[in-house]
Amino acid sequence: MFDPKTIRKYINSNELPKKKSSQKRHSKLDSYKEYLEKRIKEGTTNCEVLLDEIMALGYEGKIRDFVRLYRARPKKQATIRCETTPGKQAQMDWEHIGKFEVDGELKEVY
Questions:
Q1: Can you tell which superkingdom this protein's organism belongs to (predicted)?
Q2: Cα–Cα distances in Å, from 80 out to 6, 77, 88?
Q3: Which helix (H) or strand (E) holds 100?
Q4: What are the pLDDT digits (tens) for 29-56?
């Protein structure tokens, strides 16, 4: 839908509407992409490590979406089931309970 004022403006003028140029937007990350690509090819895909490195070079921003494109998707791996005799092995699930005072200090308890 077009605004009636816009339509009236072009009807009353002697020229056709100009198409907006589609200029490529520049990103804060543009000047750091070459460095990031080099580090990713070396095997570093940890966003925190890469962000710390380019922040030391003067970057201010985020990089997760950029790095995500370069990360290899993990392949599904088969799991070998390990069966033992009763009493030979114990298993337990860990869960975060919260912060509690332990020895006079607040500590995370799992």
A1: Bacteria
A2: 68, 10, 18
A3: strand 98-102
A4: 888 889 988 988 888 888 888 889 999 9
